[in-house]
Design a protein that fits this description.
Two copies of one chain form a homodimer.
Chain A (H helix, E strand, L loop, with lengths): L9 H11 L5 H5 L2 H6 L1 E5 L2 E4 L7 H13 L2 H9 L26 E2 L2 E2 H21 L12 E5 L6 H16 L6 E5 L4 H9 L6 E6 L6 H16 L8 E6 L12 E5 L12 H11 L1 H17 L9 H15 L4 E7 L6 H13 L17 E3 L11 H6 L6 E6 L9 E2 L2 E2 H18 L16 E6 L4 H21 L11 H11 L6 H9 L4
Parallel strand pairs in A: 5-6, 5-7, 7-8, 8-9, 10-11, 10-12, 12-15
Antiparallel strand pairs in A: 1-2, 2-15, 3-4, 13-14
Helix pairs in contact in A: 1-4, 5-16, 6-10, 7-10, 7-13, 8-9, 10-11, 11-16, 12-16, 13-16
Chain lengths: ~525, ~525
């Protein structure tokens, strides 16, 4: 297997040439019924990726296919599935796909089959959640648990939180709602204090999530929570479960009611489908619901194995993203779900993408000479339309758009106003935006003119179910993975967070040895 | 008064030359105690703007001062304060500053003093809120109101929502909490259904907010809410107040318990300090609290009148932003409040900035030839540190950072772990990040090296009080205004939202006449 820097590939040079002849405004004139029908890739759980409103042509697709083949993207994905050490910096395997099913060889370490280990943990926390729901497991004063509070930050917060909000409406409608879930992440004491002031401690089960068991914010919040439990006359060890690795100080620890395990091969931002997401989601909506989410993710992972880029949604999405970033010079991507349930999904994708591919060295640790991961941001539509869409339509920079929409709402409650339901209005807005961005509008008054030629893609499905959510999550994980392979990055480490951690320790010491650091600490009242 | 395109100014050419000699890495070596102390501009309510970690030098500041003088930024601000028609496209005055106090001439229209009108409305809704709190005004079945639900979108949602969350912790600690507030914005029926499923209708007062009284999403949600009230056996007209303009169909309407007014001179994204924010915040925390917020904003507005850029925080912030955007080529700005209470503040600033200055034509409607508003995004620290900071530290694009921090937490509840409180840890992290971005770190392993030279600024204060929040809000409003003047834009219209609205209407009709629009509508299940 070759691991080439992107600018050393033949496809890179070919794409540079293609970019020179590129005419963005053609998008508006080519967008018609046939193109929209022809540019749709079904990938999993009834979801399709539609790329009719991307700047694509037969010849561009040919070159992108060449790039996929030349950089051996599918082969690299298979290596990863087979348990190769693809996180080169930290010398770790990358096994989040194995959490939702097996697509490669058995991955065995020290005699343990890791696929079986992940499956066993899923079954354990699924059963644990069942025992909480049935009232077999209760709080230290005998109360039934009604609320779960996850304590974690970064990947232990953003993914699980996004998934939780994404399924609340579905679960309430389908009668799957078991517990309410809340989240404490920030070391800002106002975060924990606000959550703790809103709950009944005797009915609350806390989920302490830290792979290493050493995360500063999470350990501080654990003590905050324990103090509250003790003050409420409760026994903390009956109100806290841990999600961690077996080598962490939190593992096999009598301070916790139970513990569920991941390992070093599950990166934080890829841990939504592990116990990190699974415990809280199983408590909230049942293990069966979380199992359905895993199925949807597994189906998307399978789709990502298809070598023909037109049939592989994640791969095609990745390739368009690289074309836009490296050759058209677009520096950001907006994620715009037309689904209120996906309110925190853009924040999760922001971590997933920017932490994975916001890098300047290749997987061997050598500096590279091309741009990598873009800025990712977004809010649900139609809210965003009344906010930053002005810049998207008429600003001086072009920002590719990633739309998501569903035919049906989650809750099915609706109202008819002026001949249409709110769900219909929502989707009419979404259809209108895609066309508006692509085609624009001429006007003799330049202030009312829209240049068009602004590319977007659309992921659409019937309804945001657990399966669809799993597929959506895995789609983006795989997109980011393929982009990392194209750019020859290690998408699975995060050395960029280390310097801040080290300087924080210094700032907390009496004399940091850095005058600037001490002065900022003084400004902020801590010295 | 001259209104010159930015690239026609002498300062523009001078800054182009300065940029050619620019060395970003100098930032790390110049950042010391003296610089940090010397680069602090107090502006309002105890807040300071610190710009020590910006790429600035005495000569750059001189050129930026020349730019401020040449583009007559203070004079243009004064014109606006005096009620000139600064929203040239829509031919409207721009009067949000007048909501919080008078700094210019009396603005009189058709015999009415508009400053007095805004003041009267503030007094009216403040008194109304008092009557709700005292129980004088109750629901249609005699229940005391415990919950307020704002129905609005865009500026009627993002600003008020951000301000509400920003003050909850303060209010609960200071015993100022009166009502709980919730928000319905999206036309996605799941948004309204979720909120309505969580409230007791008999105890809920709805605030219907639409300046024009014709906003599609808001009117659909109004009917959704009315249906719920009727189904609950309640009289809708006793449970809804309107915030609108006097010429809208919602005004002077017996369907509502009361109505509070703004006018066309208060732009949506600038309406946080009008009745749009004031009614819900007064209901939640009392009119006195909202009055304190207005005072803080007024103080920041006054600071923005100072011609010397080193003493005018909003102006200096604006100038640095233009320097970074137009001459250093940085395409995005991250807003990073180290305060969980500011969780939705970045989303508000995203609208404020991107909708105001995401434009490609000047205030006369002519195309311009330079870049304007950047992408704005952000999440609270320390959460963001565990997410997208990887890209900020080691990505291939440099993104300027706007930090915000406070010495004290809002709630004062805290826990000591390993010798420091959580609030101290929070601020140690903030100090560490500023230094890490500025100075970087050499390392023989490029994957562990940080180039540094990544600029940031810091707004800091004692505690996030209503006054401080008002000052923070006005700071950014004024920053955006000054940048609009520099770029010669009209920052107060939003023609970029119109095409989507028109196409949505078409998509809702039986035959839109646009085959692509119809096909997307079919994909999304609405045709």
């Amino acid at each position: 297997m070759k691991f080439l820097d992107f600018n050393k590939t033949a496809s890179y040079k070919k794409l540079l040439k293609t970019a020179k002849k590129f005419k963005p405004l053609e998008l508006g004139s080519v967008l018609d019924t046939a193109r929209i029908r022809g540019c749709s890739t079904p990938f999993a759980a009834g979801l399709c990726y539609n790329w009719a409103a991307k700047h694509s042509s037969t010849s561009l697709l040919t070159t992108l296919q060449e790039l996929a083949d030349e950089q051996e993207l599918i082969e690299k994905y298979k290596l990863l599935l087979d348990g190769e050490v693809m996180n080169t910096g930290e010398k770790r395997r990358v096994l989040h796909h194995l959490l939702r099913g097996q697509l490669g060889k058995n991955v065995v370490e020290k005699g343990n089959d890791l696929g079986a280990f992940y499956k066993k943990e899923f079954e354990r926390y699924s059963a644990f959640a069942g025992a909480v729901h049935s009232g077999k497991i209760r709080g230290s004063t005998g109360e039934t648990f009604t609320t779960a509070v996850q304590i974690g930050i970064g990947g232990s917060d953003l993914g699980p939180r996004a998934l939780y909000h994404a399924l609340e409406g579905w679960a309430e409608t389908e009668n799957k709602r078991k517990l309410k879930a809340l989240f404490i992440s920030n070391v800002d004491p106002d975060d924990g204090a606000a959550v703790l002031s809103s709950i009944k401690p005797a009915e609350t089960l806390f989920i302490l999530v830290s792979k290493s068991g050493t995360t500063q914010e999470t350990l501080a919040n654990e003590l905050f929570v324990k103090a509250k439990l003790i003050k409420s006359g409760l026994e903390p060890s009956k109100h806290i479960v841990a999600v961690t690795s077996e080598t962490s100080p939190l593992a096999h620890n009598k301070d916790y009611l139970d513990s569920f395990y991941i390992d070093d091969y599950i990166g934080g931002r890829y841990s939504g489908t592990s116990a990190v997401g699974g415990v809280v989601l199983s408590l909230a909506f049942g293990g069966e619901t979380f199992g359905a989410l895993l199925e949807g993710a597994h189906e998307a992972d399978k789709n990502a194995l298809i070598p023909n880029i037109s049939n592989n949604a994640a791969l095609l999405d990745a390739l368009f993203g690289v074309w836009e970033r490296n050759f058209l010079g677009y520096g950001a991507t907006a994620v715009l779900p037309y689904s209120q349930a996906l309110i925190r999904f853009p924040a999760h994708l922001q971590q997933l993408d920017m932490e994975s591919n916001g890098k300047s060295v290749n997987r061997f640790g050598k500096a590279i000479k091309y741009v990598t991961g873009p800025v990712i941001f977004g809010e649900p539509g139609t809210n965003g339309q009344h906010s930053f869409y002005q810049l998207l339509h008429q600003g001086t920079s072009i920002i590719p758009l990633q739309f998501v929409g569903f035919k049906e709402s989650q809750r099915g409650e609706d109202v008819e106003v002026e001949g249409s339901s709110s769900q219909t209005k929502l989707n009419a807005n979404l259809a209108a935006q895609i066309v508006a961005f692509a085609k624009g509008k001429a006007d003799s008054n330049p202030n009312k003119a829209f240049s068009g030629g602004r590319p977007s893609s659309l992921i659409y499905g019937q309804r945001l179910t657990p399966q669809a959510l799993g597929a959506l999550l895995a789609h983006f994980e795989n997109k980011v993975m393929f982009q990392g392979f194209i750019w020859n990055l290690n998408s699975f480490d995060q050395e960029g967070v280390q310097l801040g951690k080290a300087l924080t320790k210094k700032a907390l010491s009496a004399d940091s040895g850095d005058a600037a650091l001490d002065e900022y600490a003084r400004l902020l009242g801590i010295k």
